Known about the structure:
Blueprint: E1 2-6, E2 9-13, E3 18-21, E4 29-35, H1 41-61, E5 88-95, E6 99-106, H2 107-112
Amino acid sequence: MGDALLQKTYTADFLTKRQVRNNGEIAQVYVKDSHKGIIDKQTWNAVQEEFDRRETFMESHGTDRYSYGADCMPFCEKVFCGDCKKPVHETFMELKGNRTVAVQEPQERRESGMHECLR
């Protein structure tokens, strides 16, 4: 069932009808099972655990997003360097004869020319 938090805002001045966010100035009320929930609590908790898992994954791999460009580049932000565990990005190198080759390398190597884990 759905829960509700009441008194999130209050009217600071009844003449101007100015609404202000309640930061503890007046008491807030938390009501359990006040209405039918959109999703059940088990699904809600599973989604919250997935958010936490993705946050931990991003912190441990040094990236700021979990999935990027899933339609056109399905492996972007999902392939990691075996040494430094940082995400590998696809860059294109031009070769002689107007040929282009796709190269997979960590972003640090692309920016500085040398990757930390290869030193």
